[in-house]
Amino acid sequence: MTPAQYAQQKAAASGSSFYYAFQFLDAPRREAITAFYAFCREVDDVVDEVQDAGVASTKLAWWRGEVQQAFQGQPNHPALQALMPHTAGFDIRAEHLLQVIEGCEMDLRQSRYLDYPGLQRYCHLVAGVVGEVASSIFGRTDAATVHYAHRLGLALQLTNIIRDVGDDARRGRIYLPMSELQQFGVTAAELLRRESPWGYSDRFLALMRFQAERAHRCYDEAMAMLPEADRSSQKPGLMMANIYRALLREVESTGFQVLHQRIALTPLRKLWIAMKTNWRGR
Questions:
Q1: Is the bond preceding 85 in cis, omega lying within 30 degrees of 0?
Q2: pTM of the model
């Protein structure tokens, strides 16, 4: 198996909505974003799949060294072997990959965020930086597109957090800011228990509506930030925005029934949204 084939297999196996947007790119850009996404999946899997925090920390330290070695011309892991031929052409720097690792390390150090600014820092590392790299691969000509990419990354990550409240609680994690739980009278213990009848109380629903409204604002702000000159090249990002926003609306339509299940769009619906975005250009 070649490094490019490994990256393709890793990206496809994730089942992510991002994969659908990649299919509309030309071959060099598709290979670059697939390899970058494979790297992100590898690092994220360390936190999600390794139970021992010490072992996970050691693995992330290995990845940090691997990134530095790769940018010195000696990549060992197939995901980085697939990515390195594209780094110069698409302005992918070691600092980008190291920031993604730093974001994953935050999951090892903390399972709560006191306030929204603290959560934004986490989102910047695990989603904003990813958006910046992706926008460069897609084709960025206007510096202002970086701001759009970071805002869109924030919107996507907030959507993930809303969808995954129950899954995260099962792992002992709460990404909703503690100050906002307190604002709506929801306790961390209640979230972690995920029990009825409290689970979908008016307090919880008010908290989740607040989260969804903020995510929608981020999508609107991102769209307003995208320069017209880059709108065509950034269509894959717009596909991701439309898929994730449809997911957010699906969660809303269920009354935020996220504590006992993981709500998802069907693959066919994701593909249809991606195709429609490609045709319409927005």
A1: no
A2: 0.93
Amino acid at residue number 110: Q
What token pair was written down for 275? 């195709």
What average pLDDT is seen over the chain?
92
Q: At residue 66, does pLDDT exceed 80?
A: yes
Catalogue all structural domains in the chain, each as residue range(s) with its CATH number: 1-109 (1.10.600.10), 110-282 (1.10.600.10)
Q: What's the rounded mean pLDDT across residues 100-108? A: 93
Q: Which residues lie below 8 Å from residue 143, measured CB to CB, with a gap of 6+?
A: none
Could you please report the per-residue DSSP string of 166-215? HHHHHTT---S-HHHHHHTT--HHHHHHT-TTTTT-HHHHHHHHHHHHHH
Structure-token pair, residue 94: 């070691």
Position 195 pLDDT exceeds 80:
no
Of 22, 60, 3, 1, the residue nearest 138 (C-alpha) = 22
Structure tokens, 105: 């390390």
